[in-house]
Amino acid sequence: MNDKIDTESFKDLSLLRQTRISHRNLNDLIDRLSHDPLADQLRVRRLKKKRLVLKDMIARLESELIPDLDA
User: Fold this and answer.
1) What is the pLDDT of residue 38?
2) Residue 30 resides in a domain
3) Torsion on CA atoms 17, 35, 44, 16, rounded to nearest 10
4) In Å, how far are 27, 43, 67 from 48, measured between CA atoms?
5) Quick count: other Cβ atoms within 10 Å of Cβ 1?
6) Nearest to residue 59, comparing CAs of 8, 11, 23?
7) Residue 47 is part of which domain span?
8) What is the total count of domains within the chain?
9) Is 70 among the domain residues?
10) pLDDT in the model for residue 64
11) 33 occurs within a structural domain
């Protein structure tokens, strides 16, 4: 019997959780800045690119958590 715990799965879940939190916080910041007429638009664009990278990372992590099924 194998009593080892798969700690890699926990690391992936933790990373996914942290990435989602970062994405949400970045989304809130972008929303606030987009309503500020004095906000630096270059900064807003860079933040949007970073948010997109986080979104792609979330999708990749979620995909990795889905177990492979033999057809």
Assistant:
1) 94
2) yes
3) 10
4) 8, 9, 31
5) 2
6) 23
7) 7-64
8) 1
9) no
10) 86
11) yes
Q: What are 8-67's pLDDT values in tens digits?
A: 667 888 999 999 999 999 999 999 999 999 999 999 999 999 999 999 999 999 998 887
HEC profile of the chain: CCCCCCHHHHHHHHHHHHHHHHHHHHHHHHHHHHCCCCCCHHHHHHHHHHHHHHHHHHHHHHHHHCCCCCC
User: Closest Cα partner for 61 from 6, 17, 27?
Assistant: 17
Asked if the structure places residue 36 within a domain, the reply is yes
Amino acid of residue 17:
R
pLDDT band at 4 (very low <50, low <70, confident <90, very high): low
pTM of the shown model? 0.78
